[in-house]
Write a structure and sequence with these properties.
With about 350 residues, the chain is of the alpha/beta class. The protein has seven helices and 17 strands.
C-alpha cells in the first residue's frame, strides 16, 4: 500500500496563491525534461511545442454549487451539491456541513422556498438529499448558488470568471481543472499557428479530486466516480497524432484521468463516455501514449500529486517541488505551472 508520508512536503502558507496572476499566461512555468529543469513564464511554453503536437484540454465548466440554509432546529447548514443521483426524484448527493445531521431531517434554503430531506448517509459528510421544488435544481443552483472555492483560498474573489478556463463550455464540475487557467486565446492561436492542435474532452471534476485520502481509498484503489466524455473528432485527432508519432500533451490531471479511463490495454480509445473511478498512483501502468503533461503544483499527500508522481516519477517531482519553493513559485489552484515529461 502507498505510504502517504512519502508524498508529504512542507509548504509555507505564504506560498499558497490567494489570487490569480493578472495575466493568465504570465504565471511561472517549471519545465522538466528528463532531469533538467528550466524556469520560464507560461507564455514561453510555445518554445516547448513542435509542429504536429496535439494538446488535450478539459473543457468542463464549474457550476455554482453551494447553498447556505438552516435545519429544522434553526441551526446553520451548508450544502455542496456534488451530483444528481435520481433526476425524477430530485435526489442529489450533497456534502453537508452542520451539527447533528440525521436521516429524515429537514433542510431549508432560500427563505424556505427549497426544502430538502436527508434520506441516506454515505460517508465523510456525504448524504443523499431529496428536494421538493417546482423548479429544476440545476436552474436553482445557476440562479442562487455560489461557486465552491477551495478552502485554502481565503481572499475574496471579485472576478469569479478567473476560476474558469477560457474554453470552459460544458457545465458540471464543482472544482476547476486548474492547469488550464494559464492558457489564453492569444497563446492558443500561436500554438495552432505553429502547426499544433488543441482538442477538447470533458471530465466533470467531483469531490473525489480533492477529498482527503484515507486507508480505504488507498487499499481499494478507487475514487468516487466522475463523468467523462470524449468527442469523435478529438479521438480522431489523438489517434492520428499517435499513429504519426507526434507528441501528445495533456493539460491537467483530470484530462489524464479521462484519457486513461477511455483507453484499452492496446492504447486505443474505445470508451467515449462514462463514469470513471480510476485512481492513478505510482506503479500504475499508463495505456495512453502521453508524452508531456501541464499541471499545477499540488497539495501534499493528495490524489493529484500521486497521479503526477505516477506519470513523471516521485523523486523527480518532489525534487522539482523543492526547486519551485526555492524560486518562489506559487502553489495550488491559482498558482504556477509545470511542464513534465513521462518518466
Amino acid at each position: 500500500m502507498i505510504n502517504l508520508e512519502d508524498y508529504n512536503y512542507f509548504l509555507p502558507k505564504e506560498k499558497i496563491a490567494q489570487d490569480p496572476e493578472k495575466k493568465r499566461d504570465h504565471s511561472k512555468l517549471l519545465v522538466m525534461n528528463k532531469n533538467q529543469i528550466k524556469h520560464r513564464l507560461f507564455y514561453q511554453i510555445i518554445e516547448e511545442i513542435e509542429k504536429g503536437d496535439v494538446i488535450v484540454v478539459n473543457n468542463s465548466k464549474v457550476i455554482t454549487s453551494i447553498l447556505k440554509g438552516r435545519k429544522e432546529t434553526g441551526g446553520k447548514v451548508e450544502a455542496l451539491f456534488l451530483r444528481e443521483i435520481a433526476p425524477a426524484k430530485n435526489e442529489w448527493e450533497c456534502l453537508l456541513k452542520g451539527r447533528k445531521l440525521k436521516i429524515e431531517g429537514k433542510l431549508f434554503f432560500l427563505d424556505d422556498r427549497l426544502i430538502g430531506t436527508i434520506v441516506k448517509w454515505k460517508k465523510l459528510g456525504q448524504f443523499i438529499v431529496k428536494f421538493s421544488s417546482d423548479m429544476s435544481i440545476r436552474d436553482i443552483l445557476r440562479k442562487h448558488a455560489a461557486i465552491a472555492l477551495p478552502p485554502y483560498i481565503k481572499a475574496p474573489q471579485n472576478d469569479i470568471s478567473r476560476y474558469q478556463t477560457i474554453y470552459a463550455s460544458n457545465e458540471g464540475s464543482i472544482a476547476a481543472p486548474t492547469a488550464g487557467f494559464h492558457l489564453t486565446h492569444e497563446l492558443i492561436r500561436k500554438i495552432e499557428k505553429k502547426g499544433s492542435k488543441l482538442v477538447e474532452l470533458t471530465l466533470h471534476v467531483g469531490y473525489s479530486t480533492f477529498m482527503p485520502l484515507n486507508k480505504e481509498i488507498l487499499s481499494n484503489h478507487t475514487m468516487d466516480p466522475e463523468y467523462f466524455f470524449i468527442p469523435d473528432d478529438s479521438v480522431a485527432t489523438i489517434e492520428k497524432c499517435q499513429n504519426q508519432n507526434y507528441r501528445l500533451f495533456v493539460v491537467g490531471t483530470t484530462t489524464l484521468k479521462a484519457l486513461e479511463s477511455a483507453t484499452n490495454s492496446k492504447g486505443k480509445i474505445t470508451r467515449l463516455n462514462g463514469w470513471s473511478d480510476l485512481f492513478i498512483v505510482p506503479g500504475y501502468r499508463f495505456k495512453s501514449k502521453i508524452a508531456r503533461m501541464i499541471t499545477n503544483l499540488h497539495m501534499p499527500k493528495s490524489s493529484p500529486l500521486l497521479m503526477v508522481c505516477a506519470f513523471a516519477g516521485k523523486e523527480r517531482i518532489l525534487h522539482a517541488y523543492q526547486e519551485a519553493l526555492s524560486k518562489n513559485y506559487r502553489f495550488y489552484s491559482f498558482g504556477d505551472a509545470m511542464l513534465v515529461d513521462n518518466e
